[in-house]
Amino acid sequence: MTTQTTPRPDTIVRANAARDTWNVLTRELKPVARDPFTLIFSLLQPLVFLGLFAPLLIGQSGQPAGETLQWFVPGVLVMIVLFGTGATGSNLQYEMMTGSHERTLVAPLARSSLLVGRALKEIAPIVIQALIIVLIAWPFGFTINVPGLIIGLALLAVFGVGLGALSYSLALATKDREWLFWGVQQTLIFPLLILSGMLLPLDEGPAWMRVVSAFNPVNWVVQAERALLAGDLGDITVLWGWMAALILAAIGLIVGVRSIRRSS
Q1: What was the pLDDT predicted at 237?
Q2: Dihedrals phi, psi of 29, to nearest 5 degrees
Q3: What pLDDT is stored for residue 105 in this prediction?
Q4: Is the four-CA dihedral 183, 188, 193, 197 of positive or negative sign?
């Protein structure tokens, strides 16, 4: 006589949550696949910095273009994540204003999957846009270290998931007040950008800027990307960059899941 083992409730819950997350992820990726122009349009700002700011930096540094691009391009890749995923909450805010978000809440989905699926959706655009920037910089002297690039893309993906989750949390908190979302987003984004050494080195900056940058997670991700794309996979900054990205991802997902559960 054989006995059937009944799956544990927590196992069933995890399986359902994984299935719901996948369903949300595929749903969110469909508009991107149908309209890839949005990916190209979001590249305009990084391309402007790469095309107009990089030559000025090369002229001021006095170093070969390849060396300057090796320092500058990793910062542009992080910039893609910072500006791209930092603004994704506006999509959720639009859904709330049009009522489609409320219809999603009625669906038999785990509330956490609504946030996690949306956050994971940011990985594909990040990887595609980062590869485009790297390929554009390559003919001008930028050296591609393949293992470092792969690890660097994974780091950007983790960082983007955390930042995207926080952006969705901000959208849930501001609801239909679009002006408040953009006000908070812009107020936070630009100090994080400047105090990360993304565009200009902070070595010669005021002491207070160097101290503040040490607590800026974006700074550590930028430094890690520079080490990875240069092939210095064992550099200590890589470890600090991964720690910063993982902590940000954990905080973003925890805050985001709690926010979406409170909103339902």
Answers
A1: 94
A2: -80, -20
A3: 67
A4: positive
Given the structure tokens 């991802």, which residue do they identify?
Answer: 249
Inter-residue contact 87 to 41 (CB < 8 Å): no
The pTM assigned to this predicted structure is 0.84
- Give the residue, 63 or 70, on which the prediction is more confident: 70
Reported confidence tier of residue 219, pLDDT bands at 50, 70, 90: very high
Cα 80 from Cα 166, distance rounded (Å): 16
Alpha helices, H only, the chain: 9-34, 37-41, 44-48, 54-61, 65-86, 89-98, 100-106, 111-120, 123-137, 146-174, 178-194, 207-213, 217-229, 236-263
Produce one character per residue of 62-99: b if its CB has 16 or more CB atoms within 10 Å, e if not.
eeebeebbbbbbbbbbbbbbbbbbbbbbbbbbeebeee
Closest CA to 87 of 232, 186, 220: 186
Helix (H, G, I), strand (E, B) or coil at 18: helix
